[in-house]
């Protein structure tokens, strides 16, 4: 079943502030970006080797109104043109989320607009809507700094996690390995680039790759990597950084692709969506394309462009369009929910959680 497009022009002003990007976008009919303003905090956060929540919150306070004004100007729309306001209300850093939620509630109240609450992870999946229509049922692979999940979607707005990480998420492992390699935060792209220059010579473990489930575990891989480097340092040996990066990345890719492709076959879906920050990894993209072409050529593999893999307001607007038309609304009591569940979600459950 392919999702239906609305014939009426619907404009959603969407806020995203769950971590270290302040982003506001205007999205038309859930699939057309009129503006997508992103204020990154990378230069501030890399001094600490990761995201400091208090620093992130302060940046959001400084940037959220500036981003909103710029998004409206770039889209060339007025508040009277808007259909609704949408906002990420979880999961994420509580202080960061509160900034976006407060701004969205203020604008919705001031202009008497409906307020649509959006789960951050649903936003990542619906970034694919900005590429092409989604066809249900489908599988979505979410790979980011905080999540590595396989999600089964029977229909629009329905999410069921069939595989999850039991410890470190893939993106978290990339950043921790990057610190060992003395790579500046965020390390994902740097490891990806370095891996292209090396080969998989260390044969790091592929945890749970043969287990009869769709769950992931990357803490053992992270520990094996750190121990290999530290043991070499104690012996006075210098290991090839490119080979270390290639070996680490090969292990991550093998596990993710093997388990995801098994789920694709067993659930009989015809569309696979990959989303989240780690979806920008060129090695992971290439491996999926190879596996699908060789074994399941009927499967439509959809990955958002690089600019939509990280956190951004456009993905929240794309998701909000679906939820808005399903009647999901929030009132002025909407609060940030840093530990918001994504275990099993329907439009009715979304509305219940947002209250």
TrEMBL record:
Keyword Iron: yes
A GO molecular-function annotation: tRNA N(6)-L-threonylcarbamoyladenine synthase activity
Binding site for Fe cation: 120, 124, 311
Keywords associated with the record: Acyltransferase, Cytoplasm, Iron, Metal-binding, Transferase, tRNA processing
Primary subcellular site in the record, as a coarse category: cytoplasm
CDD domains named among the record's database cross-references: ASKHA_NBD_TsaD_bac (cd24133)
Cofactors: Fe(2+)
Catalysis: reaction(s): L-threonylcarbamoyladenylate + adenosine(37) in tRNA = N(6)-L-threonylcarbamoyladenosine(37) in tRNA + AMP + H(+)
Family affiliation: Belongs to the KAE1 / TsaD family.
Protein name: tRNA N6-adenosine threonylcarbamoyltransferase
Organism this protein belongs to: Loigolactobacillus jiayinensis
């Amino acid at each position: 079943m392919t999702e239906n497009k609305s014939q009426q022009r619907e404009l959603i002003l969407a806020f995203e502030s769950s971590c270290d990007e302040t982003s506001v976008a205007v999205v038309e009919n859930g699939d057309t970006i009129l503006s997508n303003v992103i204020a990154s905090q990378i230069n501030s956060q890399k001094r600490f080797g990761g995201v400091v929540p208090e620093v992130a919150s302060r940046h959001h306070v400084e940037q959220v109104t500036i981003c909103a004004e710029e998004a409206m100007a770039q889209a060339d729309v007025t508040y009277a043109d808007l259909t609704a306001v949408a906002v990420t209300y979880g999961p994420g850093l509580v202080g960061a989320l509160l900034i976006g939620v407060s701004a969205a509630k203020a604008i919705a109240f001031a202009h008497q607009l409906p307020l649509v609450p959006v789960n951050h992870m649903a936003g990542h999946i619906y970034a694919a809507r900005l590429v092409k229509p989604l066809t249900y049922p489908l599988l979505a692979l979410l790979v980011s700094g905080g999540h590595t999940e396989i999600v089964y979607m029977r229909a629009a707005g329905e999410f069921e996690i069939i595989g999850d990480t039991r410890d470190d998420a893939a993106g978290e492992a990339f950043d921790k390995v990057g610190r060992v390699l003395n790579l500046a935060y965020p390390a994902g792209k740097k490891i990806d680039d370095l891996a292209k220059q090396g080969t998989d010579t260390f044969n790091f473990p592929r945890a749970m790759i043969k287990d009869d489930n769709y769950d992931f575990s990357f803490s053992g891989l992270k520990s094996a990597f750190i121990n290999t480097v530290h043991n070499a340092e104690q012996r006075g040996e210098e290991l090839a950084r490119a080979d270390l990066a290639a070996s680490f990345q090969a292990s991550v890719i093998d596990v993710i692709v093997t388990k995801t492709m098994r789920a694709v076959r067993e659930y009989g879906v015809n569309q696979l969506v990959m989303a989240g920050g780690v979806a920008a990894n060129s090695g992971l993209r290439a491996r999926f394309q190879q596996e699908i072409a060789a074994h399941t050529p009927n499967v439509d593999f959809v990955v958002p462009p690089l600019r939509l893999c990280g956190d951004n307001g456009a993905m929240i607007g794309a998701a909000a369009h679906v939820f808005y038309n399903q009647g999901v609304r929030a009132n002025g009591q909407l609060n940030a929910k840093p530990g918001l569940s994504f275990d099993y979600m329907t439009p009715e459950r979304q509305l219940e959680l947002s209250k």
